[in-house]
Amino acid sequence: MNLGEASALLNAVIWAATGVTTKKLSPAVRPFHVVTIHSIAATAVFIVVLSASGQIANIWRAPAFALLMFTTAAALNTVGSFLFYTAISTGSVGGTYTTTTGLYVLLSVLAGAVVLGEKITPMTGLGAAGIVSGVWLLNSGIPADTGARRNASATGSGSSMQPVGPIRIWKPRLAKGLVLGAVTSAMWALGLLVLKWGLDRSDPLTAGIIRNAVATFIYLGAGAAVVRGGLVPRSGRRDWTLLMVSGTLFAGSVFTWNYALSHATAAKTAVLASAAPAFALLFAVIMLKERMSKKAVAGAAVAMAGIFVVLTAG
Fold this sequence. Notes:
Elements: H1 3-23, H2 31-52, H3 58-61, H4 64-90, H5 93-114, H6 122-140, H7 148-153, H8 175-199, H9 204-226, H10 237-263, H11 266-273, H12 276-287, H13 294-312
Helix pairs in contact: 1-10, 1-11, 1-12, 2-9, 2-10, 4-5, 4-8, 4-9, 5-6, 5-8, 5-11, 6-13, 9-10, 12-13
């Protein structure tokens, strides 16, 4: 396992911790508040880190092509996140998420092979199938009253969201949610590809600032137009503390994602990061004292086995 693959796996762990932390927030903090404050907090973290390390000028020195790619990737990921929220509110949470994740991994692997010329081994494909299958089992094994807050609060890290929720019985009206999920997966896969091109010419910290600054502008613009109840949550110190902690974790997830894309293949980065729900299950049991079914635990085990297969693949 090289540093890039380790960073992709760490991304899954940090992203899971971010989601579980946001689940502790009170109902006064809406999903819009979470994604916006996360973007603002992450932008601030990256600026501080770049300033402290004397690399803040890297932003202005970055090639125009890289900045364009970072901006485009940020826009694709953020708009994809809006579509994803619409998808899970229209269809089943677990079914839509599992469809989106499966297609995202498939499209990312194909993009890596066809566009970037990455070598995809059969073991990598087998591991990816194991992770997606494990996520499906995990979602289908979580009771409907668990994960609701986590689903509502989850946001995209470098690539995609990682909510965990119930699989529900198929109904014709859920088709819209699955179609939107498929469109979301395509946008996220394209965002992955574009970000990879930008990172070939710049660094992960600069990519992190651009990604979150663009997301902040989009969220604030959309929020001013459609969000009711104000752009700032009316909440207490506990919620704001949790928002700052989760925002810092979010910044870590963005950096590890960017670093992974800079030092590993796009396919392995997407596959390993998609295992976040398995870690979220573990954190939910430890931190939130949630009780999970045997099917959810089996799903997490299958996903972990898929991770091992990917890491041992050539």
